[in-house]
Amino acid sequence: MPKRKASFNAIARMITLLSDEEQLALVDNPGALKVWTHELLSDQRENEFVRPLSDREAIEILPNLEQHVPRCRQLANEMDFRGKVFWRVKAGCTLKHHVPKLGPCHNDLKYIQNVNFNDEPTQDAVVFWSPRLMPGSVNRNVQEQMELLQETRKRLNLPPYWFSFFGPASLNAALILAEYKQSGKRVPLDRHWARTDSRRSDVHRLSLGDFGEHGLVCDDWDWDDRRGDRIGCFALGVETLGS
Fold first, then answer.
1. How far is residue 169's CA from residue 31's CA, in Å, rounded to a whole number?
2. Helix (H, G, I), strand (E, B) or coil at 123
3. What's the rounded Cα separation, in Å, for the pair 49 and 41?
4. Under 8 Å between Cβ of 200 and 220
5. What does 134-151 look like in DSSP terms, one character per residue?
6. Are 114 and 226 in contact (CB under 8 A)?
7. In this prediction, what percent of the chain has a pLDDT beyond 90?
8. Pairwise pLDDT comparison (30 vs 146), residue with the higher score
9. Residue 39, CA atoms < 13 Å, CB-side half-sphere
10. Distances (CA, A) of 125 to 11, 19, 235
11. Domain coordinates of the chain in residue numbers?
12. N or C, fewer C-beta in 10 Å, the chain?
């Protein structure tokens, strides 16, 4: 899968956001731009909680994964995805405080800052995750989606704790934005939604999606028993490190 690159047109559009005075300051001090971008990159790397792994890199971290890689690849192929499906996740990423720094989020997720929900931070882990909704997971309620995940896990003979939950919103969002960073793809595709396990204090479940030009959106639903033609789920296989 080709890596995301900055085009000349994208850079030109960015420059048009500057005032005439700011553009002149940039022309007069070209070295300052390099210093600023270096600082920006350093800040991004400090806040980078997820990075993609090749199959071999994942096996080097967790040798037991080697037996599962062919079946992971089989599932990714069923999802019509050929890219990297293993991800190294660092501990400590929360939806409220860290995710808005990882990539484009609608209104920088300011609208959830005062919402009371279980903002579970990410754990130190290697995660299997294909950036495609589980085939057949839309138009199913929560119970039916979980049954689909478990049926898939059993069919592929993957570890019993894989595909056993939707995952916290923090992990799902960090993975979505890591995929965007490397490929430019906004997932779930077609502005669909993915359910998570994070819940508000009133038990409404958080979902992520509608990832368009305004960024990734977080919303809540109170309809676990209902079906929606735009809401599905991801398949997550989490191997926590140090446990």
1. 40
2. coil
3. 14
4. yes
5. PTT-TT--HHHHHHHHHH
6. no
7. 77
8. 146
9. 6
10. 35, 44, 15
11. 8-44, 49-240
12. C
